[in-house]
C-alpha cells in the first residue's frame, strides 16, 4: 500500500432506519470506534453513501491517526448535512450509510473497528387537533426533536433523546 490509495475501506449500511412521516433531517453524525494493529493508519475519507449508491462529495476526514488505543471518532454534527439535502426516504434506504477509508504506507497495517454508528437528527412538527386549538385561542405547534443512535448494530444501552418545546397562545392565560 501507499499513500495514494486507501489501505482499508469500510462501509456500513442497511441500517433499518424508520423515521416518522414529516421528519425534516437537520444533521447527521457518523461515528467509528477503531484502533490500528501493528502500525498506524490515517483517516483518508469519511463520507456518507446516498440512496442512489453514490457517496457525498463532502469529506469530513481530518488529521486523525488511528493508534493502538481503541478510540471513538465522530464526524458531522446535529446541524451538518454533509453538503446534501436529505429526505426521510434517503436515510431509510438500504444503501444509506457511512464510509471510512484509512491510509498507511505499511503493508502490515490493520484497522480493527469495534462499531460504526450513524446519528440522524431530525425535527417533526405536530399540530394539535382543531378543538384543542380553539380552546387555546390559536393553533399551537409542538416541535419534536429526536436523535436516535443507529448503526451496523444497535449500541446496547443507548437511548434516543427527545426534546419537547410547546408554546401556548397568550389567550390560554386570559
Concise synopsis of the structure shown:
By secondary structure, this protein is mainly beta.
Structural overview:
It is a single chain. By secondary structure, this protein is mostly beta strands. Helices cover 7% and strands 44% of the residues. Strands 2, 5, 7, 8, 9 and 10 form a six-stranded antiparallel beta sheet that branches. The chain is elongated. The chain starts with 7 loop residues before the first strand and ends in an 8-residue tail after the last strand.
Topology of helices and strands:
Layout: E1 8-13, E2 24-37, E3 41-49, E4 65-66, E5 71-76, H1 88-92, E6 97-103, E7 110-126, H2 130-136, E8 142-147, E9 149-151, E10 161-166
Antiparallel strand pairs: 1-6, 2-5, 2-7, 3-4, 3-6, 7-8, 7-9, 8-10
Oligomer: single chain
Shape: elongated
Average pLDDT: 74
Radius of gyration computed on alpha carbons: 20 Å
Largest sheet: 6 strands, antiparallel
Beta-strand share of residues: 35-45%
Determine the fraction of residues in helical runs and give it as a percent range.
Answer: under 10%
Number of strands: 10
Q: Which runs of at least 5 residues are low in confidence (pLDDT < 50)?
A: 139-174
Distance between the termini: 73 Å
Count of helix runs? 2
- Going by helix content, strand content and strand pairing, the class is mainly beta
H/E element sequence:
EEEEEHEEHEEE
Keywords:
single chain; mainly beta; 2 helices
